[in-house]
Specification:
It contains six helices and 17 strands.
């Protein structure tokens, strides 16, 4: 993911850079700016903009609006040490992904970065062979995958595909939002509407069992998923 940072306080920039590098290593690319004009000159790819609401004498919200016009798919996280001063303006002309007060709580920053990365991963195409033809669907459209011996049934809203791959092969391609809950099922956690100790209820009403062997791992991953969506 390409993360862009903008803050007129250099120590804040260095702090954010260190947080991201220490936690993620080189998994994300970070580009930093200490003033709004340099930010607006940026022509690279931007998936996430983390910016102070006040950039010196400039309005960081206005600059974020201009930046998002140039980069329509960017998610914006605002940071500020004085959030109440800008509360009425923060949603004026932009729909920020999140807001972080200073001092920045690193676990909240990581949670938002992980959520955005998960969203980006789900947009990726999932490639497979269907009836001898190379086929792809967006991962976001896959509800769950069910195994019947060698055949796997991949369910989307509009179609069911029969493919011949092992669950191990499938999980190598799928994003982290997919979890195995049973020897015969991999589910997209975005589509779980209810969960008991023994079953999942999917958004379309399908009931999927939770296997004893997979229960602990599934519950741990699903709890993390739910906490990250709060």
């Amino acid at each position: 993911m390409n993360i862009v940072l903008c803050d007129d306080e250099i120590r804040t920039i260095h702090f954010l850079e260190k947080l991201i590098f220490d936690h993620y290593g080189e998994r994300h690319t970070v580009t930093s700016f200490s003033n709004a004009s340099a930010l607006l000159d940026y022509d690279g790819q931007a998936d996430l903009l983390v910016t102070d609401i006040k950039l010196g004498e400039m309005n960081g919200i206005a600059q974020a609006i201009l930046f998002s016009e140039k980069h329509p798919k960017v998610k914006v996280i605002f940071i500020s040490g004085y959030p109440s001063e800008f509360y009425e303006d923060i949603f004026n002309g932009i729909h920020p992904y999140a807001f972080l007060g200073k001092p920045i709580r690193e676990e909240r920053l990581y949670m938002h970065i992980d959520n955005i990365q998960r969203s980006l991963d789900c947009r990726q195409p999932f490639h497979f062979m269907y009836k001898g033809t190379p086929t792809s669907v967006s991962m976001a459209d896959i509800k769950y995958i069910e195994s019947h011996g060698r055949q796997k049934f991949l369910y989307t809203d509009h179609k069911t595909y029969i493919i011949n791959q092992s669950f191990e092969q499938l999980q190598e391609q799928l994003s982290a939002v997919f979890v195995r809950c049973h020897s015969a099922f991999i589910v997209n956690m975005n589509y779980i509407s209810n969960c008991t100790s023994t079953n999942l209820v999917m958004g379309n009403g399908s009931v999927i069992p939770i296997g004893r062997k997979y229960k602990t791992d599934f519950q741990s991953k699903f709890l993390q998923f739910m906490e990250s969506d709060i």
